[in-house]
Each structure stands twice: as C-alpha cells, then as structure tokens.
Description:
Oligomer: single chain
Structural class: mainly alpha
Strand content: under 5%
Helix content: 55-70%
Number of helices: 9
Shape: globular
Radius of gyration: 17 Å
Amino acid sequence: MGEKDLDTLRSGFLLRSLFGSAMGKETSYELASRRAYRDLCRTLAVKGVPGAAKARERCAKAVAEGLREALAPAPLTWDGYAEKHQALCDELVGIYQAEAPACGFTYGHTQKWVNMAAKYLVVLGVREAESSIGALHVPIDSVVLKTVAMAKSEGGLGVESPFGKWTAINDYPAYLAYEESIRRSLGEGVLPLVWEFAV
C-alpha cells in the first residue's frame, strides 16, 4: 500500500468520524449544516421546548440551502457575502422566534451555525466555499473571543469583545462590526477563516 492510499484512507476515516454515517447519503451542504448544529446545540435550552425539533429541522434546511445560494457566484467579496450572511441569519432567528421562542436562540447561535457550516464546507472540499474563503466569517465562540482579546504579544489580536459570551450576541450590526475588527487586526494577506483554523 502506497503513501497516497494511506492518505486517502486517513482522510476518509477523519471525514466519516466528523460527519458520521450520512456521508454519501446527504449533500455536502446538508452534512455541514447538521454537523455545525452539533457545535452550538449544547448552549440552547431545547429539552421539552415545544417546536424546538421543528425549528432545528427548518433551520438545518435553511442553512444548507442558504449557503448553497450564497456561495453560488463564487468567488465572493467580503461585502457581498456579508449581505447574504445577514439575510440567512435573520431567517434563522425568525424561525426560532416563531417556532420555539423559549429556546433563547440568538444571533450568537445563528452566526455560529452558519459560520461553522461554511467552515465544514471548506473541510469537505466544496469548491465554492474554498474559492470564497476570504469572504467567509470566523465562527465566534468562547475560544475565539478569548484569543482575539489576548494581546498581540501573547498571540492574540488585542481586540476586546463587546459581547461577553458569544451566545449573548443579539445584534447583527454589532456582530458584523466585531468580524470586521478581527479582519482589520489580522491585516492584509491573512484570511480570517484560515487564521481561525489554527485557533
């Protein structure tokens, strides 16, 4: 068995470990959306909440379809993607507010879902996501908030968060301003999502 064969086996195993048995049964967009939900669901109050399962399923489909549409004219610019990103985030928040308001679903949750799904599309090798990686947003969570706030001399960016917890993000313009401050702090030539892969 050659090195290339081992690389293929390794990468196939890692992808199946990350995305589960649905590999090959769902589109890359569906896989990415469902996996991304798992990254945020522990922060939602969903147990016993009427409408929570319906909201999750509607949003999972909306994320898959929304990213497919948002990334279609690849490569995207930062501003072009941000506009589509906001529309998708607004849609998700609206679904949860209508179906399961007791879940406490915020823009913090929606940005994490959409941004992790986009990141997983890069991991899955989806061409549209790869060619637009410079426009994709950093998935904001506690690790990112801490790293971004650290001094540059300590490996951070020296940018304070206006949110406290990422789940408390409940204002899209403030969220986008924070993403833009990360982008500015990284400087030219450093793509935010590429930077975040190493955080």
